[in-house]
Each structure stands twice: as structure tokens, then as C-alpha cells.
Amino acid sequence: MALTSKITPYDPTWPARFLTDKPLIASAFDAELIAIHHVGSTSVPGLAAKPELDVLIEVHAHRNTSTRDEVLMALGYVRGSDLSEGHHFYRRNVDGIRTHKLHVCTRDHLTITQMLGFRDLLRRDASIRQQYETLKLQLESSNTGGMAEYLEKKAPFIIAALLHAGMGSCRDKAKIRTFVL
């Protein structure tokens, strides 16, 4: 079973694609919107990634989800399963290829802190960034179980990096795991 996309070298057009898409995505959220962030590997300069933009959207609350779903559907997004309480997920494919993943989280959701924290850690620490890229490429080459396997095998590295950077305690390990799966 394959990943949703093949990992490719960093593409400097990824941030511009995010900035182009940001106002379109924002149009689905009205007054509930707090912020929209480019996260995931495509948001880290120099990091090889699946060419799928990860977007983190902070909202005050999940209000008017049916209206939001309609606007996002018109933009080509499909609502997936909620990843946890307060964490809605959408995906966009173009010609059968995944291009975007939207993570819509309520204010103060643990996922917000973890996604932004891991992104910022990768941006500032070249050694961790290189280790993470090496791991992702190894996991891609040995993958037989698809995305679930890939995410599960990345989880220990992400947890260890966040804990080492002081973004959680040992008792937070289970909570951090929910962010990566």
C-alpha cells in the first residue's frame, strides 16, 4: 500500500502556494477563525516532503460546520473523520493526487501547540531536520502498510524531539502521540 504521495526534495514554491490558498480557505470560517498556519514538512525550508500542504486552522469553536463544509467542498475539500475531539480533518485531491490536508482545531487544542512546536523545532535545528528527513525517506522505502504505518513509525521520533525540546513531560507522551497519528 503506497503513501498518499512520494517524498520529494523541498520545493521553494510551497510557501507561496500556501499564501495563495490561505484567503480561499479563510472564506469558509467567518467569525470563528483565529489563525491559519502553514505546518508540516512543506512549511520547513530545505526539508524533503510529500508535496501536500498541511494547514492548521485555529477556530474559537466549531460553529456552522455544515456551512463550512459546503464552502470547503466547493474548493475541492472532503471532510474526513475527526482526528480527536475538537480536531476536524479535511483533505483535497487533484486528479487523484493529495494536495492539501486541513487540520481545524479549537483554540487551546493540544494539537496546535504540538504542530507549531514541531514545525518551529525543525526550522531552527538543522540536525533534527536532517534526522527527520532521513527517517522519512527510510520509512517511505520500506513501507508496505500505507499512511497508517508511516505515521505510526514516525511517531517515536516526533515524540522524542518534542519532549527533548521541552514541549511536554513524560506524562504528556500519550497526548503527544494523538497529534502524530
From TrEMBL:
InterPro entries with a match to the protein in the record: GrpB/CoaE, NT_sf
A Pfam family recorded for this sequence: GrpB
Gene3D superfamilies linked to this entry: Beta Polymerase, domain 2
Task: Give the PANTHER family listed for this entry.
Answer: GRPB DOMAIN PROTEIN (AFU_ORTHOLOGUE AFUA_1G01530), GRPB FAMILY PROTEIN
What's the name of the protein? GrpB family protein
Give the organism the record lists: Pseudomonas putida (strain ATCC 47054 / DSM 6125 / CFBP 8728 / NCIMB 11950 / KT2440)
Q: What is the lineage of its organism?
A: Bacteria, Pseudomonadati, Pseudomonadota, Gammaproteobacteria, Pseudomonadales
